[in-house]
Amino acid sequence: MRELAQSIERWRARGDRVALATVVATRRSAPRPVGSKLIVSERGELLGSVSGGCVESDVAVQAAEVIADGSPRLLTYGISDDQAWSVGLPCGGEIDVFVERFEGQLPDPDEPAVVLTPLEGPRAGERRVVDPAEVEAGASRVLELDGERVFAEVLGPAPRLLVVGATDTSEELCRAAKALGWRTAVADPRPGLVNRERLPSPDELVVAWPDEALEQLAPEPDTAVVVLTHEERLDVPALTAALASDAFYVGAIGSRRTQEKRRERLLEAGVSEDELDRLAGPAGLDLGAHSPAETAVSILAEVLAVRAGRAGGRLVERSGPIHAQA
């Protein structure tokens, strides 16, 4: 969104008007998720994507008309199986795209907020930004509010992964999580291990004892904490602090025997049984992982499953919806 905002300002500075197209709903295998955006300048320049190439040309035509007359419009596109195949999807679907002449400012995507935009009627396109507590929006989606169809776009910082232990697996975990757009940090009290030569991927490197590091990093409900150490003097303070935090996931590597000994030590340290029930140990899904990169995939897969409220089993054995639901 930051790149789009910069381009909008650049196009406006030279005197061009701009249209903004936003995916507000999807059905079946849509090429882009809800919230995806495309901007179109008065000169016909495009930046962003609403369909991976399937319908951008028509959206650009519609955007030119919206720029000219100022009237927003809600469009529905059915993406054929052939079109879907060309952008790497197994089958087609439908998307709803809201196109408007955009004269405001895009909100900061990292600031928690809900942007409410009426999609129809005389107030179509009149967005307002509200506190997330004011609207139980869940994920970004179309809602009925006060008799209007409104697109509620949920903004806020990306999920965060905090790793305790500067190991090869921590680098692989952060590399994989960053590919998903997550914020990442690695903490370890050993300065010889915490450096950019060994750990180029994390956003933050913290040289501190685990409890001090977690106090500094302050895990929130959007945070997953993974402990990769094998030493009691690091494990116990790390897990004691993590299990007492608001982190939605707390995991630790190690054999089942290691987990039993760790559990005893945590109980001795004052961690309650209820808190221990939150601990995923051994961390990860049963993928048969061996290398640091494979182990990272296993752990991150479990993190994603927990965040989505899923068990992490095989999709072929699932009878319900495959994709995460809003």
Separate helix tally: 9
Give me the count of strands.
15
Helix content: 25-40%
Overall mean pLDDT: 89
Distance between the termini: 21 Å
Alpha-beta classification: alpha/beta
> What share of the residues does DSSP label as strand, in percent?
15-25%
Rg, Å, rounded: 23 Å
The global form is elongated
Low-confidence runs: none
Largest sheet: 6 strands, parallel
Strand order of the largest sheet: 12-11-10-13-14-15
Order of helices and strands: HEEEHEHEEEEEEHEEHEHEHHEH
Describe this structure as you would to a colleague.
A hairpin with a 2-residue loop joins strand 8 and strand 9. A six-stranded parallel β-sheet has the order 12-11-10-13-14-15, with helices on both faces. A five-stranded antiparallel β-sheet has the order 3-2-1-5-4. It contains nine helices and 15 strands. The protein is elongated. By secondary structure, the chain is α/β, with parallel strands linked by helices. The chain has helices at residues 2-13, 56-69, 81-86, 168-179, 210-217, 232-243, 256-268, 273-276, 292-308; strands at residues 18-28, 37-41, 46-48, 73-79, 93-101, 113-118, 128-130, 141-145, 148-155, 160-164, 183-187, 204-206, 223-227, 249-252, 279-280.
